[in-house]
């Protein structure tokens, strides 16, 4: 499979007075297109810093980070911002929704920056919110939704522009166990059906089990890289999930048509009785 993310001898050093803190210490690995990759480690292990370096949110102190063959360390801030808008999506632990906006408006935001027309972006946002199970919450603002519903909005926002890579930093950190598993299933299935790459930070080994590749991190160093699924297995899962989703959409369409047909028949019968 295509290597979509490549890290070579990446370092991140923070200076605290005369002391040097090595948050990421000479890290090298690759992530293939379509892989679900988990960065697993305890608090303070450097996993979130590593994700921020890959996403271009922070600048590495050394080494090389390539995404889709582009060296993001050499990009200007403007080019990096354009690159993120074009190829990357983000799911945050704290949801990061705008409180004054409803669910549709929050999901539309990435499309606003991509200069998608208002009519098209609203259509895409509604479609995505339906996919994450929020058909009845589209007009609600964040404070009117539960944590799980807010994170579903966050997921819809991350996926609405069809990014090739989605970065997720402890996306279920504020959720209860039941909602956590629902959100993880949602992220996994959405990524599979579109053959998208996920890079997720977690401290929970149970959530890391969703990964095709688990990168174990301790004190800024890689302790182990655990490959759980082959490229062929990932590709087969992606095809199966895409087919399953297609069948579900066709079934929903059929039910809507049947409901509409019954409604029209009922209206016709009512009209006929009135005429008599």
Number of strands: 10
Which spans of ≥5 residues are poorly predicted at pLDDT below 50? none
In percent, how much strand structure appears in the residues?
25-35%
What is the structural class? alpha/beta
Find the CATH superfamily of the domain at 32-56 and 77-229: P-loop containing nucleotide triphosphate hydrolases
Residue share in helix: 40-55%
Distance between the termini: 69 Å
CATH topology of the domain at 32-56 and 77-229: Rossmann fold
Strand order of the largest sheet: 6-7-8-3-9-10
Mean pLDDT equals: 92
Reported for the largest beta sheet, the result is:
6 strands, mixed
Radius of gyration: 22 Å
The CATH class designation of the domain at 32-56 and 77-229 is: Alpha Beta
> Which CATH-level-2 architecture of the domain at 32-56 and 77-229?
3-Layer(aba) Sandwich
Taken in chain order, the helices and strands follow as EEEHEEHEHHHEHEHEEH
Total of helices: 8
CA-based shape: elongated
Give a structural overview.
This protein has a domain at 32-56 and 77-229: Rossmann fold (3-Layer(aba) Sandwich), CATH 3.40.50. By secondary structure, the protein is an alpha/beta fold. Strands 6-7-8-3-9-10 form a 6-stranded mixed beta sheet. The chain is built from 8 helices and 10 strands. The mean pLDDT is 92.
List key phrases describing it.
8 helices; 45% helix; Rossmann fold
